[in-house]
Amino acid sequence: DNALLKPNNLTIVAWAYRTAAPNATNGSGVAGKWAGGNGYFLWIDTDVVIKFPVNGGTHLSSGISSVLNAWQHIAGTFDGTTSRIYTDGVDRANQADTLTHTATPFEIGRYADQDNTNLTGRIAEVALWSVALTANEITALAKGVSPNLIRRNSLVLYWPLWGFASPEPDLSGNVFNGTVTGAVLANHAPVGRYAPSRLSRIFP
User: Fold this and answer.
1) Is residue 49 predicted with pLDDT exceeding 90?
2) pTM of the model
3) How many beta carbons lie within 10 A of that of residue 88, not counting itself?
């Protein structure tokens, strides 16, 4: 429950590569902190729409279907009053919101409130900032710019998930190194110089 993981403003981003349909009950978790209606999370829901939940359980839907067997960039921002959801660098929707926090761990690949909502597929380039990035910055990330090159001083956590070290290193400089459970290596998301050849974690 480190304060660095409980910012007042935030941006959370990830690349997701879905290889099976979302869980039939609660969707598939991608990344975030969530418990009892508090926190922040990116997921792919049962209606195959990407959502960014804040404000005690209110879900902001992008209105854009996720795709099978292809990388998709997803992002959510909160600037203190408004949350926004992006897919592939495009601002899809926004709503007035408040942000609440939880002391649960920051997790990827599963929905923290439900053990049976793991994402079947790949996740890479998970990052969290303590500011709301602009639309142009989100677009840059979706085009393959590394999170380390975007507002480095506000970067709270950055897990590329190349899969070459254990624990999984946090490259933000805050040393929130991650523990990997039940994942294997797979082709990485199209980011920076690692796009064609590096590896990321694949989640069963």
Assistant:
1) no
2) 0.89
3) 17
